Amino acid sequence: MEGRLNHTPFTATIGWPQPPHLFFFFVVLFFCKVQPFGTLFVQAQSQEGFISVDCGFEGGSRYQDNSTGLEYSPDSQFINTGENRNVSENRFSKRYGTLRSFPNGTRNCYRLSPVQSGNKYLIRAGFLYGNYDGQGSSPIFDLHIGVNFWTTVKMGSAGRFVSDIITVSQGDLIQVCLVNTGTGTPFISVLELRPLLNFMYPFANASQSLVNQERWNYGTGNQVRYPDDPYDRIWDAVTNDFLVLNTTNEVEVKAGDVFLVPSKVLRTAVSDTRPNLDMTIRAVSQSPGARIYIVMHFAELVKLNSANESRQLNIFGLNGQVLLFPNYIAPYLTADHKEIMNVALGGSGSYNISINVSSSSTHSYMINALESFIVRQMNESQTDDRDVSAIEDIKRVFRLTGNWEADPCSPKEYTWKGVSCSGYGDSRPARIISLNLSSTGLDGKIPTSIGNLTALASLDLSNNYLIGPIPDILGELPYLQFINLSGNEDIGVVPENICQKMLEGILSLSINGEPKQCKSGHNNNNKQKIIIPIIIVVIILLMMLLVVFVWLIKRKRKKYSSQGFSNEQCITRSRTTEENSWKRKSVQFTYAEILQITQKFNHEIGKGGFGIVYLGNLTDGTKVAVKVLSSSSSQGSKEFQSEVLLLSRVHHKNLVCLLGYCEDIQHLSLVYEYMDNGTLRDHLSGDIHNSKLLSWSKRVNIALQAAQGLDYLHNGCRPPIIHRDIKSNNILLNCELVAKIADFGLSRAFSNDYATHITTGLAGTLGYLDPECLNSKLSQKSDVYSFGIVLLEIITGQPPHSNSTKRTHIVEWVHSKFQSGDIKNIIDPMLKEDIDINIARKIIEVAISCTSKTSEERMTMSNTVIHLKQCLEVIESHKSSMQKSNGTLDFESSAPTAPSDR
Ligand SMILES: *[C@@H]1O[C@H](CO)[C@@H](O)[C@H](O)[C@H]1NC(C)=O
Ligand SMILES: *[C@@H]1O[C@H](CO)[C@@H](O)[C@H](O)[C@H]1NC(C)=O
Ligand SMILES: *[C@@H]1O[C@H](CO)[C@@H](O)[C@H](O)[C@H]1NC(C)=O
Ligand SMILES: *[C@@H]1O[C@H](CO)[C@@H](O)[C@H](O)[C@H]1NC(C)=O
Ligand SMILES: *[C@@H]1O[C@H](CO)[C@@H](O)[C@H](O)[C@H]1NC(C)=O
Ligand SMILES: *[C@@H]1O[C@H](CO)[C@@H](O)[C@H](O)[C@H]1NC(C)=O
Ligand SMILES: *[C@@H]1O[C@H](CO)[C@@H](O)[C@H](O)[C@H]1NC(C)=O
Ligand SMILES: *[C@@H]1O[C@H](CO)[C@@H](O)[C@H](O)[C@H]1NC(C)=O
């Protein structure tokens, strides 16, 4: 027994209680009894629903424990990792003679089933080191219940550790996981699961479990467990030097009692002959920072003469400092309970209770039983059930091992290799959003179960030995944006729905060589053999027609006409195939036309990095923005044209559409779609006169749209386009407040010749400039940095450089506030609405990642899109359900619990 017991009548030093394991040398078979339960009579449970596992036991069948009659089974049906070992010394019962140890893997889990989702269970794990490995030193490791921390396993002086937890099952399976924390090989000797009734221990619920610290049965020398306790709680015996009170009468349990303490436990108690003494109980020890829950069980066992006898208890908590229950009188031969809930322990990690009696009492203190627990928050999100079954199937098909054990997403530090998830710390289940099995030697077909990962945004199966076909179902995944199958031999044709999404610019697919022609529909092979050549012929004919058509149009345009190039055409053009779009050319305007469109540069609407922007009207009335590039270019007209052609090929709903250009050597100009609502900067600073303030969800939406546009430049274009000058002035809003990125491609095309306007001599604008770019070359990550600054502007409403002397740069300012946990004051004070702090924190985390000093630390635009999308989803769902979160997160220290021996 460990030094955990501190029951002190006055100041006497108390010896240890007798060893709890007194063997009853008889076999108790199917012991049934009827327990009084108010007016109800509930038959005590048989072993129904019990799971009793003797870990490492290799016998073929169950065996019965001599003292309890419980049947223990071998563990092979609950786990398939680890190895069986025998302990060299065991003075406990047979089940401690063998163990299963786990030299491989960080997390190994027992899967206990069947259990019922939402039901309450008591689960107990026992560990006897017994020098099984000859090392002579016992390991320390963690125990998890599902995805949540249970306790740290640390053998006591007897070399043994036992812990039980009262928990609510989240599914039809409870996993008990042993986690290697780098301090020795985990092992386990015994694992027991006992169903409780759901009304028992109401303080345990789906979001918090109770880890037992002490379970004392006072006034007896014998431990009580099954069958006396039908729920098989183990009540350890305590007598010490106390006066023992006992009775042969049954102690009654009132209707509505939620603890159902067995009569055998309540029939004994401790007291003293002298009334004026204190009893001190150390109910919890060595658990600094923990939140605790204590239940004291009482039943008066002495028939007191009401005329002249009394026992009025004063129960003090908090190490004697607070009188919790004054003048308490326990009912005669009836179970009663006093609870101390949710106390947070300070640095000492101990909680003492003192019991004395009021001055008028003729009898001394008394207590029958006590239980104490550490309250564990169950706040890790389990992974969505369907994701789990899909990824388990993928694991099976590809025979994946490594850390692919237990929950795929949670806890975060043990997420499966190659798997990324969203939704940590949410009440909702975690979802798998990315799967990267690149270069893992996979072979065979691509399993269709990937299609069940419905939150998947990115799939990388590159550099394996996979063969086609690509399952159609991948094209139906609503969030899937990237598929990388390059470096696989024979992937075959691309399903039509995937082709369609690629054309729409919402999915990018990498496979060896050029994407093969799209598979059409679900035709069978015979039909395909005929249909494919026909389609090819038709396509060729169509393309020839198109070429002729385009040529005709171009000739016409050259003559004179600029009609018909409305925004709408821009949008429809963005849906055309890449092959087709490269043949299309932006409209070429003459200088005379530009003069007419802009009415001789009559209406200036802005001054960008590359020149002045004028408002213009096409002949059909469509408003356009004409950017006249400043100063003449030494760049040849041919190069200008090729750059413009390149840019006109880039179409995305979040990129400002280039409608045409004028090649006049003195007046190089670009004609863009007109964006009614101006720049994002104007809206954040409130510069636009009567602009309404952008709401929180609008802002997140704008951030997401800008991220999508940028992501398309980085990942949807070949070669990738680096913007080099992302800032809130380059993010424009149209009449529906859809954000589009402007000026993309210009830095690269013109920086040689228009360097004068660029603040840094390189590219970009001060305040948005990647701190790395001065010593290394610009990359996509430089855009990510600038985007991060824009995101911070959106969150805070502040420009990157405030004129106030208090702050230097927005990144440092936000960083210091974030580290001090001051999320509320980061957010734009103009936003009056209630903002979910958790979501705000997530978005700030994204921005902080984007603005990391080194580019390696920054997330990619693709990941930014994924994160923002999820945040927006949550915001929208909150908005629609009008549910507001109070935003309190409860972090609990994972202090090791005091070991207790059972
Ligand atoms: C149980 O008791 C029987 C006799 O009472 C004995 O033969 C047997 O070995 C015991 N089993 C265990 C596991 O101790
Ligand atoms: C642990 O890994 C080693 C090396 O991969 C292997 O030989 C051994 O069998 C594994 N042990 C168990 C229990 O899985
Ligand atoms: C009650 O306690 C006394 C003193 O310990 C003991 O001798 C006696 O056997 C006990 N009676 C019962 C019914 O447990
Ligand atoms: C995938 O989902 C379907 C329909 O929901 C289900 O029938 C199937 O069992 C799932 N497959 C896997 C491997 O989870
Ligand atoms: C565009 O046309 C509108 C009316 O159709 C006119 O009011 C406006 O001044 C024109 N602007 C320019 C720049 O041509
Ligand atoms: C955006 O533009 C539309 C049309 O020009 C206008 O009705 C709307 O008020 C503008 N929104 C904001 C926030 O300025
Ligand atoms: C900062 O700018 C705001 C608005 O532009 C102005 O009102 C304020 O006086 C400026 N503060 C300083 C210290 O320059
Ligand atoms: C936040 O919680 C408090 C009590 O904890 C409650 O009174 C209040 O209504 C809650 N606020 C919201 C917005 O749910």
Stretches where pLDDT is under 50 for at least 5 consecutive residues are 1-5, 9-45, 519-527, 556-585, 751-762, 882-901
How many distinct folded domains? 6
**What is the CATH C level class of the largest domain, in words?**
Mainly Alpha
Which cofactors or ions or other ligands sit in this model? Answer: 2-acetamido-2-deoxy-beta-D-glucopyranose
The structural class is alpha+beta
Q: Tell me about the biggest sheet?
A: 11 strands, mixed
Tally of DSSP β-strands: 43
CATH fold-type name of the largest domain: Transferase(Phosphotransferase), domain 1
Helix content: 10-25%
What is the average of the pLDDT values? 80
Tell me what portion of residues adopts beta-strand conformation. 15-25%
Distance between the termini: 9 Å
Number of helices: 15
What is the global morphology?
elongated
What would you report as the Rg, rounded to the nearest angstrom? Answer: 36 Å
Instruction: State the fourth-level CATH superfamily of the largest domain.
Output: Transferase(Phosphotransferase) domain 1
If classified by CATH, what would the architecture of the largest domain be? Answer: Orthogonal Bundle
Q: How would you explain this protein's 3D organization?
A:
By secondary structure, the protein is of the alpha+beta class. The chain has six domains: 49-198, Galactose-binding lectin (Jelly Rolls, Sandwich), CATH 2.60.120; 216-377, Jelly Rolls (Sandwich); 385-510, Ribonuclease Inhibitor (Leucine-rich repeat, LRR (right-handed beta-alpha superhelix)), CATH 3.80.10; 520-555; 584-673, Phosphorylase Kinase, domain 1 (2-Layer Sandwich); 680-886, Transferase(Phosphotransferase) domain 1 (Transferase(Phosphotransferase), domain 1, Orthogonal Bundle). Strands 4, 5, 6, 10, 13, 16, 17, 18, 22, 25 and 28 form an eleven-stranded mixed sheet that branches. The protein has a six-stranded mixed sheet with strand order 36-40-41-39-38-37. β38 and β39 (623-629) form a beta hairpin. It is elongated. Bound molecules: 2-acetamido-2-deoxy-beta-D-glucopyranose (8 copies). Pfam families: LRR_1, Malectin_like, PK_Tyr_Ser-Thr. Residues 883-902 are annotated as: Disordered. It is found in: Cell membrane.
